[in-house]
TrEMBL record:
GO terms for biological process: adenine salvage; AMP salvage; purine ribonucleoside salvage. It is an enzyme of class 2 (transferase). Gene3D superfamilies: 3.40.50.2020. Catalyzes a salvage reaction resulting in the formation of AMP, that is energically less costly than de novo synthesis. Belongs to the purine/pyrimidine phosphoribosyltransferase family. Homodimer. GO terms for cellular component: cytoplasm. This is Adenine phosphoribosyltransferase. Residues 63-171 form the Phosphoribosyltransferase domain. The keyword Flavoprotein does not apply. It comes from Candidatus Nitrotoga fabula. GO terms for molecular function: adenine phosphoribosyltransferase activity. It comes from the Bacteria.
């Protein structure tokens, strides 16, 4: 859904109109970042585009309207942007999943492996109640390490993952397959193959 400006005697008003705009066209590619050979998919160009951002959130709202969701969990940091906007539109609560030491109250965490070491994500101990239906959201799925850790953390607290939702999928890096192997449903709005 796009919004067009029209002007009249009473000023500017917005009129809804349908769109087939591919959000992929609003995502910038930066070659060789953060290291040589990597094609970095920069979603900030989609976020700064009011039409692209609205289309992104509206497509997700359309997908999840009528689905039983109690909470949306967004992974730090760009998952906060997509997840909170979606939670607002769906009228459900939002849970931030953050890096270690960033949340103020009592937390529960999950450690996960990186290429050269480990990392930890956390959420508040009271963020999820037993049986809550949780939609896990992030901007991008690549190798899947953080998303797997987040889904494990949610389930360890008694939450049920409705789906793992991403704006971008990099299927060649295996994250989607890794989540699906664990029995998770995975959805993305677009994918970039071969990178």
């Amino acid at each position: 859904m796009l919004w067009s400006e029209t002007s009249g005697m009473t000023g500017i008003r917005f009129v809804k109109r349908e769109s087939r705009m591919p959000i992929k066209s609003r995502i910038r590619t930066i070659p060789h970042y953060p290291k040589h050979g990597v094609m970095f998919r920069d979603i900030t160009t989609l976020f700064k585009d009011p039409v692209g951002f609205r289309v992104t959130i509206n497509e997700l709202v359309n997908r999840y309207t009528g689905v039983k969701i109690d909470r949306i969990a967004g992974i730090e940091a760009r998952g906060f942007i997509v997840g909170s906007a979606l939670a607002f539109q769906l009228g459900v609560g939002f849970i931030p999943i953050r890096k270690k030491g960033k949340l103020p109250a009592e937390t529960v965490g999950h450690d996960y492996e990186l290429e050269y070491g480990t990392d930890r994500i956390e959420m508040h101990v009271d963020a999820i109640s037993q049986g809550d239906q949780v939609l896990l959201v992030d901007d991008l799925i690549a190798t899947g390490g953080t998303a797997v850790a987040a889904s494990d953390l949610i389930e360890s607290m008694g939450g049920k993952i409705v789906e793992c939702c991403f704006v971008i999928d990099l299927p060649d890096l295996g994250g989607r397959a890794r989540l699906e192997k664990l029995g998770q449903k995975v959805f993305s709005l677009c994918e970039f193959k071969g990178d």
